[in-house]
Write a structure and sequence with these properties.
Blueprint lengths: L1 H17 L5 H7 L16 H11 L7 H5 L2 H37 L8 H38 L5 H7 L3 H15 L1
């Protein structure tokens, strides 16, 4: 995707450079604002700045690219050669970064495929604690209403069912509700 964008930008840049002077697109490319204030922080990049960055990435000289665009076939050849080199470098850097990341994970013991029993237990406890904190009140309220309905159907309404629900964690209630739903089907 990056390569395609760079190719399109530089191809358009070559077209604009070969245009006659006085064309609006060429004036916009070389124009600068005389008045106005720059916003705080890093300003957004202009099209010209992005094209310069692309030229540097393809190994082209940013001072002599204008003379190279005058010859369409030479510009196209230089651009294709630069894009091929950029693609090779991009793939090589991505592969090196991937290997470095995998190597770091193996050294520090963070490889997901090799978890100890203690690590799995820790992850399970963290998940259940998060589940209890997030879904606990919702599940308890839902479970209370299920118990009330059940008690109403059985004609035995009592406050002991309300108290027994508050002692359960959200994970226990979720497991119990899911097992009831599966058994009822």
């Amino acid at each position: 995707m990056y390569i395609l964008l760079k190719q399109r930008r530089l191809r358009w840049l070559g077209h604009v450079m070969r245009m006659a002077d006085g064309k609006i697109l060429k004036d916009l490319l070389y124009g600068e604002l005389v008045q106005g204030k720059r916003p705080r922080g890093r300003p957004q990049l202009r099209y010209k700045d992005i094209c310069k960055r692309d030229l540097r990435a393809l190994g082209m000289d940013i001072n002599s690219w204008e003379t190279l665009t005058a010859d369409h076939s030479a510009w196209k050849l230089k651009m294709q050669h630069g894009l091929l080199q950029f693609e090779e470098t991009f793939v090589w850097q991505a592969e090196a970064k991937r290997q470095s990341r995998n190597q770091r994970n193996l050294v520090s013991g963070q490889n997901v495929s090799v978890l100890s029993v203690e690590g799995i237990a820790t992850l399970k406890l963290a998940f259940l604690a998060t589940l209890d904190a997030v879904l606990g009140p919702l599940l308890r309220a839902r479970y209370r209403s299920l118990l009330r309905r059940k008690d109403a159907n059985n004609n035995c309404v009592g406050s002991s069912t309300k108290l027994s629900v508050s002692g359960y964690s959200a994970a226990d209630l979720a497991f119990h509700c899911m097992s009831k739903l599966l058994n009822s089907c």
